[in-house]
Amino acid sequence: xxxxxxxxxxxxxxxxxxxxxxxxxxxxxxxxxxxxxxxxxxxxxxxxxxxxxxxxxxxxxxxxxxxxxxxxxxxxxxxxxxxxxxxxxxxxxxxxxxxxxxxxxxxxxxxxxxxxxxxxxxxxxxxxxxxxxxxxxxxxxxxxxxxxxxxxxxxxxxxxxxxxxxxxxxxxxxxxxxxxxxxxxxxxxxxxxxxxxxxxxxxxxxxxxxxxxxxxxxxxxxxxxxxxxxxxxxxxxxxxxxxxxxxxxxxxxxxxxxxxxxxxxxxxxxxxxxxxxxxxxxxxxxxxxxxxxxxxxxxxxxxxxxxxxxxxxxxxxxxxxxxxxxxxxxx
Length: 331
What we know:
This is Luciferase-like monooxygenase. This protein has about 325 residues and is an alpha/beta fold. It has helices spanning about 25-40, 60-70, 90-100, 120-125, 135-145, 175-185, 200-210, 235-240, 240-250, 270-280, 285-300, 315-330; strands at about 10-15, 45, 75-85, 105-110, 170, 190, 220-230, 285, 305-310. The chain contains 12 helices and 9 strands.
């Protein structure tokens, strides 16, 4: 049996907003995609915290997680991730303790330390510029304390939250979170969907330095990657121009709302190289190309789980992409 057939596949949804589209439309698409991938057998469905980005609608991440969890029944719903230094750990524990109580054994809490925004937005959130630089491990410990069983004499408790044992993940795109996840014995998710350059080094650091914990006996690494599947290689690459335009506009400081696919892109050599660097781990193509691409990626990374992000313009194309991946995966 192939490695792909035995590897759990999951979904990362960045709640993209289309050009001239509405946020309500995005939320409807998110629920539709979660329901669809649940029926296809995908394992998790994660949403990510971003602020003041006009192309992403998942700023109130815990609220949207609850909305999606309420309209699905089996698939695990979680954060990929919550940017912990933006929030008091007690408040995060209360939010995710509430979610875990409402949807038992279905909620994941992935944590990052980046702001998910720019400096001006950080100031608007009252986040100190150096928050998370030195105190992130202590914040993770504090959050875990609020989700664990209460200790004798504990004066401050997360209600709800205390004793819910919501699974914690550390997310990252560098060696810092990889080494911290290893030291704490937590599962690790690497963000190759936008920063594949350090992927292999980070995974090596995580596995080499892993210490068993009450949570894990052995390391568990999930890797996010862009996947766009279509009925032909040509059509998949055409659909991929939506993601390429988004990264191109990010580089140019323009709106990152999703644009329709295009036959050609107006970019210079430097911009093209930068976009290709962002999407360096992407698997794009028809069924056979996607099958081989995913098998090769698993062989390269040894990932225990893959989390796929499919950034295309039309919801029908996004649903079709996951259909093709599921067919490839289950066959």
